[in-house]
What we know:
- The chain has one domain: Alpha/Beta hydrolase fold, catalytic domain (Rossmann fold, 3-Layer(aba) Sandwich), CATH 3.40.50.
- It is 40% helix and 17% strand.
- It contains twelve helices and eight strands.
- The chain has helices spanning 40-47, 72-85, 98-109, 130-137, 141-151, 154-158, 168-177, 183-193, 197-201, 221-229, 246-249, 251-258; strands at residues 2-5, 8-13, 25-29, 52-56, 91-96, 114-120, 208-213, 234-239.
- Strands 1-2-4-3-5-6-7-8 form an eight-stranded mixed β-sheet, sandwiched between helices.
- Helix 10 (221-229) links the parallel strand 7 and strand 8.
- Helix 5 runs antiparallel to helix 7.
- The longest helix has 14 residues, at 72-85.
Amino acid sequence: MYVEVNGYKTFYSNGTGNIATDQPSVIFLHGAAMDHSVWVLPSRYFARHGYNVFALDLPNHGRSLGESPVSIDGFADWLKDAMDALNIDSAAIVGHSLGSLIALNFAARYPGKTRVLALLGTSTPMPVTDQLLDAARENHHDAIDMANTWSHSNFGQMGGSENPGVCMTMSGQRLLEMANNGAFFTDLNACNEFANGDELAKHVTAPTLVIIGEQDKMTAPISAQAVADGIADSRVVRLNPCGHSMLAEQPNAVLDALATIV
């Protein structure tokens, strides 16, 4: 499905469901250099359980056009514009990694538009190593190799996907390889420069769920717990074994957790 946001064609998946004015809405926000496809399982589930689903491709990601925002503030403002274009008054905002920072920022700054909040693989701040940033700046495959390796736990690298026929690490690699040139660096740099997360967390009033992978090397569990501790109405679900790529490694557990709040 497409909608025009700020003059650019923007794609979203509705989980092959229907959009109805009398149903609550849920918005899914993907991570750096990814797209809506990481949300296939929860998108289809919630679309079949009475929700309007909007799994967005951020600007210059997936099938969406336009220039990618260079800051988390910019992404959050774009999300507000996307909701206006889609006539969404309020929604459950669910974000993974980069998407979690966008969701946190949005919930703090636009509380009236945030029904509930779910943060997956989150951390504030969310520092990125110089080696990864430099490789991403040059569009070098090393950036993909580093991020993909660090995003999977030992369990994920060994295999045994709950999704039949899916190789978790190769799926992650191919998704990153499909990103537009420059998108990965822009996303990572926005995460790296996001500095006011702790202050924003104090202003989040929506009920919040934080999902933590116990073997997450990209956003450390202790940092994710600190985000939860900074939000007044929050609770935590811990997944084990699980790394940063929790939607690939523990898709059913993630869905079970989301179903308790969305």
